[in-house]
From TrEMBL, chain B:
Biased composition (Acidic residues): 48-59, 66-93
Biased composition (Basic and acidic residues): 37-47
Subcellular localization(s) per the UniProt record: Nucleus, Nucleolus; Nucleus, Nucleoplasm
Listed InterPro entries: BOP1/Erb1 (IPR028598), BOP1_N_dom (IPR012953), WD40/YVTN_repeat-like_dom_sf (IPR015943), WD40_repeat_CS (IPR019775), WD40_repeat_dom_sf (IPR036322), WD40_rpt (IPR001680)
SMART domains given in the database record: BOP1NT (SM01035), WD40 (SM00320)
Family assignment from sequence similarity: Belongs to the WD repeat BOP1/ERB1 family.
Gene that encodes it: BOP1
Organism field: Oncorhynchus tshawytscha (Chinook salmon)
Domain BOP1 N-terminal, residue spans: 178-436
GO BP annotation list: maturation of 5.8S rRNA from tricistronic rRNA transcript (SSU-rRNA, 5.8S rRNA, LSU-rRNA); maturation of LSU-rRNA from tricistronic rRNA transcript (SSU-rRNA, 5.8S rRNA, LSU-rRNA)
Keywords attached to this entry: Nucleus, Repeat, Ribosome biogenesis, rRNA processing, WD repeat
Listed name of the protein: Ribosome biogenesis protein BOP1
Assembly notes: Component of the PeBoW complex, composed of BOP1, PES1 and WDR12. Within the PeBoW complex BOP1 interacts directly with PES1 and WDR12. The PeBoW complex also associates with the 66S pre-ribosome.
Pfam families, sorted: BOP1NT (PF08145), WD40 (PF00400)
Function of the molecule: Component of the PeBoW complex, which is required for maturation of 28S and 5.8S ribosomal RNAs and formation of the 60S ribosome.
Amino acid sequence: MGGLQKKKYERGSATNYITRNKARKKLQLSLADFRRLCILKGIYPHEPKHKKKVNKGSTAPRTFYLLKDIRFLLHEPIVRKFREYKVFVRKLRKAYGKAEWTAVERLRDNKPGYKLDHIIKERYPTFIDALRDIDDALSMCFLFSTFARTGKCHVQTITLCRRLTVEWMNYVVTSRSLRKVFISIKGIYYQAEVLGQLITWLVPYQFAHDHPTDVDYRVMATFTEMYTTLFGFINFRLYQTLNLVYPPKLDSKAESELKAEHEEDYAMDSESYLEKLSALSASLARVVATAEEEEENQLDQFPADGEDLENMEAREKEQKEQEAQNRLFEGLKFFLNREVPRESLAFILRCFGAEVSWDKSLCIGGTYNVTDETITHQIVDRPDIDKQYINRYYIQPQWVFDSVNAKMRLPVEDYFLGVTLPPHLSPFVEEKDGDYVPPEKLKLMALQRGEKHVQEEEEDDDDDDDDEEYNDEVDDEDLTEEKNLKKMEDQRSQGKTLAVKVTPGKVKPWETGSVGNKVRLEKEEKAEEKRLAIMMMKKKEKYLYDKIMFGKKRTTREANKLAAKRKAHEDTSKAEKKQKKAKKQ
Amino acid sequence: MRTVNLESQKNGTMSKAKEKSAKKRVVEEDDDQLPIFDKDVTEKKAGEEDDADLSDSEESVFSGLEDSESDSHDEEEDAEEGDDEEDDDDAVILDEILTKSSGVETATEPPATDKNTPTQPDVKTAPKRKMKKGEGVAMDDGGEKGLITTRHGDEYEHDTSDEEDIRNTVGNIPMEWYQDYPHIGYNLDGKKIFKPIRNKDELDEFLDKMENPDYWRTVHDKTTASDIRLSDEQVDLVHRLQKGQFGDVNFNEYEPSVDFFTNEVMIHPVTNRPQDKRSFIPSLIEKEKVSKLVHAIKMGWIKPRKPKETTPQYYDLWAKEDPNAILGRHKMHVPAPKMRLPGHEESYNPPPEYLLTEEERMAWEQQDAEDRKLPFLPQKHSCLRAVPAFSRFIHERFERCLDLYLCPRQRKMRVNVNPEDLIPKLPKPKDLQPFPTTMSLVYIGHSSLVRSISASPTGQWLVSGSDDCTVRFWEVNTGRCMKTLEVGGAVKSVAWNPNPAVCLVAVCFESTVLLLNPGLGDRLVVSSTDQLITSYEPPEEDKEQAVTWALSEGPEHDNGHRLTLTHPKAVKQVVWHGKGDYLASVMPDNSSNLQVLIHQVSKRRTQNPFRKNKGLVQCVSFHPLRPYFFVATQRYVRVYNLIKQELTKKLMTNCKWISSMAIHPGGDNLICGSYDCRLAWFDLDLSTKPYKMLRHHKKALRGVAYHKHYPLFASGADDGSVIICHGMVYNDLLQNPLIVPVKVLKGHQITHDLGVLDVTFHPTQPWVFSSGADATIRLFT
């Protein structure tokens, strides 16, 4: 045979991976520095395909990095900066110990710093790459901007985060790219479409944070450091695409208006400017004043090569819809009461072309007063309000969110003051076949299709109607409801036939006819055929098939459960209503 | 007037000088303690040296206290400098010193003073000497200090080596050394100083002590060997020193402190020293340094420090973006998945069905955080104003951060297949007809489980053997039991002779194989069979055989018994060869090679084909066309060539325990049923491994069978079902057999965990018989 004996683990996947400790030793970094480097450079462990091979036969749980990644880190200039910083800290400590204050000051002045520009460029070679990855950056910056300016992290970071988020919001307002919003119990989700990328972020409610003790803020700070750099560059580029001045400036007209009013309220000019920007009430200055023209500009449509006419038409239609959504609130004048979350509502409303104002004492930048006669909607989040103007709607904030998600102005009646609000649905859920669709969503879809939902309106009148009518109504509703349910269940059971055993069928009344019988027989035959075919599946495929079917079964089970719950709820609520009515009489 | 002035002044200076000396001493003491001020001290000393006769202004700068006075004193002295009364001054001073110290000295050494006084040039040394003397006896502060003031700058004044008594020049040595000499030392002139003539002895001493009233104040001076009587002042001094008081009576240690640097602004400067010239002209050294810096700045060696930029600068980072500039590592890059988007249940006002019920909430709370399906509790708030902060917000963001940098990533291919696509596309069973589809007849009669069935080659009759020790013959079409035969034990196996010209049934129970002639069907055939058996002629030489062949007679013959083969061990299975002359019986036994016997009915001969035991034999079978013999042991099927008497093939079934076996009528395919729910189809031309493994039964397979003419095979299992499969074998060798399950037949009840025990096909029709543990036989057509 000849040749050297091949040793184990000297080639193949064992040499492509490196454990974390070894990587750390290779880079000669402390764990903290290594962590920071990994965060900044976006290096993460990989799960090897054959863990035991990589782990040299051992099954101990280890995290593995790609050796290539670690080699790639070796030449990172920032590693040197880390070392410099370490030396700096040592020197500073020494100087402190010796009470050499001049030395301390000198060292402080020469504190080594580093920039992450090159890392950003390296991690995201193209702008779209960067944009794709901005979700986390946005959420993090929005979180940090709500931190109190004490402890936990540097004040500069907080102000920077605030500045960047304000810039982002201004960009979204100007580009009108907001698509969906959702009030969750965690915070408010926003989804925008920027340059074809769907970007979702979460903004916490404006409360002071109860800082947890089991969270390592250094990790978060490192991430934020990276994110702010990335975010700043993205903002710059985005502003450039819209011909906006960066750092953002208010329109000269708007600026002068604002200046006249509120100049004396704020101590620092820079601070007040940021406040004005964050008020989101004024448009931004542009490099070239071509705002109107741009909007008029219509792009010609050319069918792409592989596209047929239908496809193109669909696209066109979609685009039109999109445009309509962008003008959703155009021409409306809103006034925000002080108890509603001003920033989010102002942001959303401005994104869809509405005019917004608020009380002068609430925030800078309000453009008109409550007394303005031209206000069409006032957003109020309290059960009742003393002084009401007759020519405007008083609505709850959920109307805005629901309207945005429905891409249409929903009837305001459901959202009046003191009215029990309809459920707020998540716009991010896309129901597939067999999934549970809440009835509200069905209603909404009907509304979107342009069907006038008669029942709903009648329901509103319900309370005033007499009992009999009400009962009829209820029955009607019941019937339709049941039909719906049945239909859904039928659909589901069709999908489920595989799992169900074929039992000798009972003769059902509607199947007595020969036609029905035939159909049934055919069905059974098919089911049997399938069952027999399943017998012939290979072991591997059978396993997979069983798994898929198990998952399907679970979803249908869950959907059924939800439907049953809903039905039970409705029954109880109806019973309660009836009782109430009975009591009244 | 003037002299008086002078005198008083001198007195003043004297007293001042005293104080000053005290100060100086203090200062010198300070010297030791505070080395920091070294420089100043040396300066001071230098100053003292420089202008010895000059005032102590320099000193006073540091000692500070009596400056104003000393200043005036300086001026006056300066003024007097020019006068020729200098000598007088000195003289006066001397006088004073003398008068002062005389009190002390007169008693001890009057001649010395006398000697010194007249000589003017000696003035300086004399008082010094005198002073030393005083010191040696008892320090007269006043005198000494006076000297110091006048003889300013003589730092050797205090040198300890000078303090020794210079009347005796032997130095500081133990005086005992001179004990034996008449002298005690030498005077300045080198003459011997003799001891006093008579030394005092003890008695003298005592007398002296008793008589001399001044004894207590008398001290003995060893150097001069003389007694000295201390004066009153000296005694007083000693007392004071003993008490730890100052030696000088006049010294007031509690003088009121004079705040020198007061807050009050004085009209005069503290020192009147004129400013140096260097304080008015620019420094050359500084100029040089500055010009160096200026030059360095001009040359660009030094850069002025820029104010640090705190706000980051942003620019168009992707101005020159190159989509191809993707690093190598990005090939392996696995982008982090985005956060999951929220569903309806996360809404602040979800539809009611998404809220958890009380039980669900309890269950949620009891679950571990990892097991929870939802990481939060859905909640409903009546209005937006009522929504509280989410307490785990920072946690969730942090966990996301951890996931981003700590979680190992792996690209997983999500199987995005339609489950329908996984199901193999098979021909429709409808197109594969005929095959049995419905149960049409049930043969009832047995009282215990029916182990084995077999159909006659004509397809008119069916024989079944049961555990109730009977063999029953049935008419297939009517389900009638034609005949019931009692045998001596539970029937394990029955087999109808496949030769249509012979009407013979082999039945095995316990260790017996019985050949029966049921007498059914064609009489001609029946009689010819009987004839065949009776026509046997025993051979000339009778060989020893493993079994005994016995011809039945009498009532047994009437019952149909024809031949009885008594085996040495329990027989499990009997199988006919296709021609109907040979018969194989299986006696499973793990310990011997006598497990399979092949009998030839026409010659009543038996032979054991195997010399070796290859494992527990489960069943055997003859090849339908060729002289091959199949033996199934627990896990393997061995194929023997009977003519060549060798093993041709060993089939690996991959089963744990084979239960049954059937050979395709073509002879090239074989199926094996096993107790571990598998059915293996072997293509003997293809491989020794199964061509297809079917796992369609839920429980152990008990019987398998091929149809003689139709491409069908059946398998019966303990789950009570018989599965009919279409198993098409093509003549074309390149085409693999097509196997399609076509029907699941149910009907047998499961009793004692046993379902179907045997299946067999009708020889001509696509019908299948199955016998079960429920004591029935069923016919599916």
